[in-house]
User: What shape does this take?
Amino acid sequence: MKIIGLIGSYRKNGNTDTAVRKVLEGAMDQGAEVEAIYLKNYEIKDCNGCEGCKTTFECVIQDDMQKIYPKIMEADGVVIGSPTYFYNVTGIIKNMIDRLYCYEVFDEDDRSVWMGIHEATGIKYATVVAVCEQKDPEDLGYTAVTMTRSLQALGYRVVDELKIYNVFNKNELLLDTNQLIKLEKAGKKLVKTILLKDKILNIMKSKM
Assistant: This one.
């Protein structure tokens, strides 16, 4: 089983990085193979709305996103994390999400009929991590919503939506034991959910 972490912070070893890696540690403890992907190290251009992906489900823009697509398709689960920038996700997370538009398929004659490709090929699972400097939940804005709703549209079930408040300085999250335990538990839960799906499928197959 493969779980990837998509880290949308520009600050390596910061609180968002720590949070996502803690979820991955929990997943690894349950036997999953994990990989942390630092989006700041990739050149990801804006989606330009060209519809070049309409029939192939593949983006025509040739940049580093082409290195990320196979990782997303191969992964059984995804952990996606972003700090809050002006009540929303960072630019690199938004660019990455927008470029997943190629995985949305629309009816030729009626665009109100659509489907994320994972709905067709088999639902996948995700954990969302949103990090905020402030204490007030309102200051988190749309950070978690943007990631969760986008993943759901692509055919993911979001197992956990974790909201981390009141951390700003680089190592602050490392001092919050309760939050770290919650993040690690989320990683274990993500793997257990996928294993439960596999168990159900195996039982159903044995009855055929």
Remarks:
- The longest helix spans residues 177-206.
- The chain has one domain: 2-206.
